[in-house]
Design a protein that fits this description.
Elements lengths: L1 H24 L11 E5 L4 H9 L4 E5 L4 H12 L3 E6 L15 H14 L5 E4 L17 H18 L4 E9 L3 H12 L8 E6 L9 H16 L3 E6 L13 H15 L5 E6 L5 E2 L5 E2 L14 H11 L5
Parallel strand pairs: 1-2, 1-8, 2-3, 3-4, 4-5, 5-6, 6-7, 7-8
Antiparallel strand pairs: 9-10
């Protein structure tokens, strides 16, 4: 009898472990309604963007240049229904990120040219990751005050042409870095709030990812909202499905992360837009982290598992 009870107890313990494991690691279901706009970041790959548009996706985020080729491409996609969050940054300036000596007056001229070139873009993000050294060029030299001036001048110019435009500031502030948070607090204290309609955050997980990380994300998202009292836009978040340097990644892992993250963001009443990074292929150069919903290989353009979940989420969001 004692042996029977021991076997029964062992069976119960195993059953409990299986149930806990299942409910801890199973993908969350997509909410029936997504309470914000959903979009995807892209970098001018026409075939993938047209494919996304043909599948009903309309909201994109990209760096804005004043080149004739990009103006032509985005005009074509706009005619098909695309709506862009345009990033005004180093790409917008003459000679792009290679221009190391530009002035505030050159910035103002470049912003004005962009607003004139893309009159249908009505949501503008001011700079991309200004805290990253490689993106600190010319007048945007890492100074909090200079970034405030960039926001102020760009917003003023945009509002002259588009009084109802939405200005998104912070260029994707990261979570988890106290020093960068204090830097953004300095930008805000200069008076950036007068020129901003929303705040942009970038959120990337630790790898390997654990759902327990969401509580850490929550505290930082709340911190930025408490600082600014503005709507929060997550303008980049994502996870690679493969990597040249990180073992163990997979399409199923990426898909599970995407679904769980969108469900998590849906719990914040002040999160108004969320953009997945990225639409297509490899990012990070030689590191070859494949964040794409549309794969670069096997074969080119074949949708990943996460693409279908993204379409389902998009269809339940305000974007639809």
């Amino acid at each position: 009898m004692r042996k029977f009870f021991l076997l029964l107890l062992a069976f119960a313990v195993v059953l409990i472990i299986i149930v806990v494991f299942y409910y801890s690691f199973r993908p969350m279901e997509v909410p029936s309604k997504i309470n914000f706009f959903v979009g995807v970041c892209t970098h001018g790959n026409e075939s993938s963007e047209i494919f996304a548009i043909e599948n009903g996706v309309r909201y994109f985020r990209t760096d804005i240049t004043n080149s004739n080729s990009q103006v032509s491409l985005l005009d074509k996609e706009h005619a098909l229904g695309a709506s862009y969050l345009g990033i005004l940054d180093y790409s917008t300036l003459p000679n792009g990120i290679g221009n190391k000596n530009w002035s505030l007056s050159e910035w103002n001229e470049s912003v004005e040219n962009a607003v004139k070139s893309y009159p249908w873009i009505t949501t503008w993000e001011i700079w991309n990751e200004p805290y990253v050294g490689v993106f600190q060029t010319g007048f945007m030299n890492g100074s909090a005050y200079n970034y405030y001036l960039i926001i102020k001048s760009a917003s003023t110019i945009i509002k002259e042409y588009q009084p109802n435009a939405t200005i998104v500031c912070f260029g994707g502030a990261p979570i988890g870095n106290e020093n960068i948070f204090l830097w953004y607090s300095e930008v805000w204290n200069y008076g950036a709030g007068k020129y901003c309609n929303a705040i942009s955050l970038h959120i990337y997980p630790s790898l390997p990812f654990s759902a327990s990380e969401f509580s850490y994300w929550r505290s930082w998202i709340n911190a930025y909202e408490n600082m600014t009292k503005e709507p929060i836009w997550i303008t980049e978040f994502g996870m690679p499905s493969s990597s040249a340097t990180l073992p163990g990644l997979s399409q199923s892992m990426q898909n599970s992360f995407l679904v769980q993250s969108f469900s998590f963001f849906n719990s914040f009443p002040y999160i108004k837009r969320v953009y997945w990074y990225d639409l297509w292929g490899f990012s990070n150069g030689p590191i070859e982290n494949n964040f794409g919903l549309l794969n670069l290989t096997n074969p080119i353009g074949k949708p990943s598992q996460a693409w279908y979940s993204f379409l389902e989420i998009y269809g339940r969001s305000l974007s639809a």
